[in-house]
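User: Here's a chain of 316 residues. Predict its fold as tokens.
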Amino acid sequence: MAEEGNEAVTVEDNDYRRDDGQNVDSRRDPARWKPSWTPDEQRRADSLHKALRRTDQYTTLTARGVRPLYILSGPPGLGKSTFVEDIIARHHEATVIARITGRITAWYTYRILAEQHDGFTLVDDADSAWTDPQFVDIMKQASERRPVRRIHWGTSAAPKVPTSLPAWPEELLQKLRDNNKGELPKTAPLTYFEFTGSVVAITNLNLRMEAEKAPRKLGLHALLDRANYQDLGHSTGDIQLLWCERLNYDERLLEKMGLGIEQETEVMSFLRREYRNAHAMSIRLMVKIAEHRRDAPDYWLEMAADELRPARQHRP
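Assistant: Prediction complete.
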């Protein structure tokens, strides 16, 4: 490790190990890009590295079904979804049977969880849903620490779902038969179902802060008491840069895109020089610039400049 001072330090391969003690680069050629950080930057990068390892642990435990619900929050552009999906693919702990994203509603979430009552579900980009007390209540019921959880809709107007779904309790099916001369309708309101699956939810909102804004209305405090919750903290331009460097170093993102060490070094050096000119420093921006370097080597610098904020002046 580097001594105190203002000089830059280069990350050594044996400085960063996974939780099992294995070197993160044990399968990679040692001739590789390494970030150069000041001692203060390295301390902050160490903290980010530890946060990523906790994310790895939480996601793996939830994908295995050991934990019922894990919520990951953090500012936009950190690559939260990509990182979580990579963990699932790398560990082969589960197949994402259902992925809910976009404008998520309580009705749609209830239906998907019923369809995948014994599987793994990824709820992504769910910012608007966390202001809906009914969505929060569904997540709270799903997060109870017992092998089998009962999820109720909570109102008389329960979503209609196919009666062929395995999630239907026999008690409700029998009532439908009794009311329909022994026949089952194709669809019917599902007032409750048994849930043995698990959920990872990703959001840009700091839910602890949201809980303080409306402590009683939403029921977020009760949800966070039950779920595993991790917030990746606030973000500034320099933190975002460190995050990109840390994640690229740990997960070999640019290498996986097909960039050689020289190309990777050029891209990461460009980001370090120009990150203050970016409208928003993010994993997405790093990936786009890396794509330009890979696909258009003669024009990538000009194309990279196009990705920076409009206020930046550059020739057409």
